[in-house]
Design a protein that fits this description.
By secondary structure, the protein is mostly beta strands. It has one domain. The chain has 1 helix and 5 strands. A hairpin with a 6-residue loop joins strand 4 (46-48) and strand 5 (55-58). It starts with 10 loop residues before the first strand and ends with a strand.
Length: 60
């Protein structure tokens, strides 16, 4: 099972079917990342991870 490296991009586009969204996300390897945090995308349509600064944008 290949997982993408955690926190390698600075902007992630997600869909409402992906909610709830966490950083690192489900498909990312977590062994080399920060603690998992859930992001409140439902409120404004975007959120920034407090640990790594990655921006998550809700597309639909």
């Amino acid at each position: 099972m290949n997982q993408e490296a955690a926190n390698t991009e600075k902007v992630y586009h997600v869909k409402s079917c992906d909610l709830p969204v966490s950083c690192p996300s489900k498909g990312m390897a977590v062994w080399n990342s920060h603690p998992k945090v859930f992001l409140p995308l439902e409120e404004t349509g975007e959120a920034i991870c407090e640990y790594c600064g990655a921006k998550y944008i809700l597309q639909d």
